[in-house]
């Protein structure tokens, strides 16, 4: 008897899946355990195995198509079996078993076309759990270029990183939904890939009528902007350079980034790459020609009173996707969660001595941050109310300990997660944190690296900060702000002696954690850091 296979929920936050690839086609025999398809979720691309044997009689959507969780994905049964009842039972599932290319199908109006189901359409993907829109940092393929599966189409700037978007099909790039630097909402039309000569008029019109973000037709004629469209150089700038690029400028994303940081106008840079493309090497070797101003050529008159001349100047830059999400999430946290703060001083003399001895034999140099992270992880196992999340109608008390470590990057802040930190050694924690920090700076962190924290640590001690308060990182109920270790006078055995003191401040969500609960957690943490050998038991 034929059986319907519905789109499974492959992650806790998944609402829909994209068919990255079908490994079986209609009419193929399928055995239990055979790889049926690859499903792209909001967090990863996962393999879906068949849980029954038979013949694949129907697929719900082709490669690149989207299905909501519990939508009809496939039907497996006996060859020749009538599946009309299963098709009728599924919502809106009335079309033929194998859909013909949608671009060739007649449509009464552009608005009636569902472009998300078309094989030729590439929509802006959701590349992180908090992403609502993406910025096209740069196109690696231009309209008319041949595209192969796996080749990089474009660099997409999300709220957390700049990521490469690979093509999941072969064809020719027929259309671009935005120019470099422009924004596109998630699920809006990003580009069209298909066969040469495909009529894309109805697809573009449908995307516009569906309320997509404004799109730009990337035709060969549009690529040749007139010189009049180039920005006018301000007359007050005393720089004599020759404009070598007019209209659309071809430059690598890295070259654009470096040029922006150095304040270099790409119109004056001669590219040495393919077809005059500007590379990072061109930016590094660029030196603007300067000319003396008429005022500098004449001697300044002598004055009896020294005068100071200045010029008001400033830069205004668009808010990055990362900064937007940081602003939104932390604002929501601060103004939604009732914060309160608990500060405690820790005697770090024993920790300083223990670290010295550990590093004499350790393969990697253990830092104080590694020791704090390990102590926090062990303390959370004893105080599960601190290792929790506010979910509105329920409070989640986590049995696992996943600690987010705040890492500062140029554009803002990322929080990669050390998973099951209580079970890891100091050396394992050290290596993992260093790898995360480097990946964050290189913009290579993936969504799986920053999702799923149950507690967060923010350490500014290396910057000389003695004490600060941090805003809770949702959905965590607490965050620990770690200051630097300072040598200060302390009283021991009735005498004032120099000591190493570190201050910790715990920010708590009062909806979940009470003052006594937070204080008990800090007492446990204090005992572990002041007697670090207890962490090794």
Main sheet makeup: 6 strands, mixed
CATH topology name of the largest domain: Chloramphenicol Acetyltransferase
Number of strands: 26
* Proportion of beta-strand residues: 25-35%
- Strands of the widest sheet, in order across it, are 17-26-25-24-20-23
Give the SSE map:
Layout lengths: L2 E4 L9 E7 L6 E2 L4 E6 L4 E5 L4 E6 L6 E3 L3 E6 L6 H6 L31 E3 L9 E7 L6 E2 L4 E6 L4 E5 L4 E6 L6 E3 L3 E6 L6 H9 L43 H10 L17 H5 L9 H4 L23 H16 L2 E9 L1 H13 L6 H15 L5 E3 L4 E3 L5 E3 L1 E3 L2 E3 L2 E2 L7 H16 L5 H4 L4 E5 L18 E15 L2 E15 L5 H16 L7
Parallel strand pairs: 20-24, 24-25
Antiparallel strand pairs: 1-8, 2-4, 2-7, 3-6, 4-5, 6-8, 9-16, 10-12, 10-15, 11-14, 12-13, 14-16, 17-26, 18-19, 20-23, 21-22, 25-26
Helix pairs in contact: 8-9, 8-11
Give structural notes.
It is a single chain. Helix content is 21%, strand content 26%. The protein has 537 residues and is α+β, with helices and mostly antiparallel strands. The protein has 3 domains: 3-99, RNA polymerase II/Efflux pump adaptor protein, barrel-sandwich hybrid domain (OB fold (Dihydrolipoamide Acetyltransferase, E2P), Beta Barrel), CATH 2.40.50.100; 103-209, OB fold (Dihydrolipoamide Acetyltransferase, E2P), CATH 2.40.50; 321-536, Chloramphenicol Acetyltransferase. A hairpin with a 2-residue loop joins β21 (407-409) and β22. α8 packs across α9 (426-441) and α8 packs across α11. The model is unreliable at 92-112, 212-240 and 290-298 (pLDDT under 50).
């Amino acid at each position: 008897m034929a059986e319907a296979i519905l789109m499974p929920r492959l992650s806790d936050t998944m609402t829909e899946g994209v068919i990255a690839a079908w490994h079986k086609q209609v009419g193929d025999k399928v055995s239990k355990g055979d790889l049926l398809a690859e499903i792209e979720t909001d967090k990863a691309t996962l393999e879906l195995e068949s849980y029954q044997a038979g013949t694949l009689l129907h697929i719900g959507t082709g490669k690149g198509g989207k299905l909501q969780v519990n939508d009809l994905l496939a039907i497996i049964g006996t060859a020749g079996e009538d599946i009309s009842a299963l098709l009728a039972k599924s919502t809106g599932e009335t079309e033929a078993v194998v859909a013909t290319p949608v671009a060739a199908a007649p449509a009464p109006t552009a608005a009636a076309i569902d472009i998300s189901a078309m094989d030729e359409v590439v929509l802006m993907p959701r590349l992180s759990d908090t992403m609502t829109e993406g910025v096209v940092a740069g196109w690696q393929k231009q309209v008319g270029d041949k595209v192969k599966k796996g080749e990089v189409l474009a660099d997409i700037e999300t709220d957390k990183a700049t990521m490469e978007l690979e093509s999941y099909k072969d064809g020719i790039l027929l259309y671009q939904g935005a120019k470099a630097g422009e924004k596109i909402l998630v699920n809006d039309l990003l580009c069209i890939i298909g066969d040469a000569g495909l009529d894309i008029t109805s697809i573009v019109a449908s995307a516009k009528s569906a309320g997509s973000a404004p799109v730009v037709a990337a035709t060969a004629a549009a690529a040749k902007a007139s010189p009049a469209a180039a920005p006018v150089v301000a007359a007050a700038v005393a720089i004599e350079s020759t404009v070598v690029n007019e209209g659309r400028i071809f430059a690598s994303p890295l070259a654009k980034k470096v040029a922006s940081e150095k304040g270099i106008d790409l119109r004056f840079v001669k590219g040495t790459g393919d077809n005059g493309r500007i590379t990072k090497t061109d930016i590094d070797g660029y030196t603007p020609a300067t000319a003396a101003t008429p005022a500098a050529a004449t001697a300044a008159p002598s004055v009896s009173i020294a005068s100071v001349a200045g010029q008001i100047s400033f830069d205004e830059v668009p808010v990055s996707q990362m900064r937007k999400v940081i602003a939104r999430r932390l604002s929501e946290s601060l103004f939604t969660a009732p914060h309160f703060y608990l500060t405690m001083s820790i005697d770090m003399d024993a920790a300083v001595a223990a670290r010295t001895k550990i590093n004499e034999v350790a393969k990697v140099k253990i830092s104080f941050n590694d020791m704090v992270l390990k102590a926090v992880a062990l303390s959370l196992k004893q105080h599960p109310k601190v290792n929790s999340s506010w979910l509105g109608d329920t409070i989640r008390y986590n049995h696992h300990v996943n600690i987010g470590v705040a890492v500062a990057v140029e554009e803002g802040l990322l929080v990669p997660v050390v998973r099951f930190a209580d079970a890891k050694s100091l050396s394992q924690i050290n290596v993992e944190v260093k790898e995360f920090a480097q990946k964050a700076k290189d913009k290579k962190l993936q969504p799986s690296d920053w999702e799923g924290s149950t507690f967060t640590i923010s350490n500014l001690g290396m910057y000389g900060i003695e004490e600060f308060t941090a805003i809770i990182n949702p959905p965590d109920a607490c965050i620990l702000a770690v200051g630097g270790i300072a040598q200060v006078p302390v009283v021991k055995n009735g005498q004032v002696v120099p000591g190493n003191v570190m201050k910790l401040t715990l920010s708590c969500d009062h909806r979940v954690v009470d003052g006594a609960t937070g204080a008990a957690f800090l007492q446990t943490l204090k005992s572990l850091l002041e007697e670090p050998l207890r962490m090794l038991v």
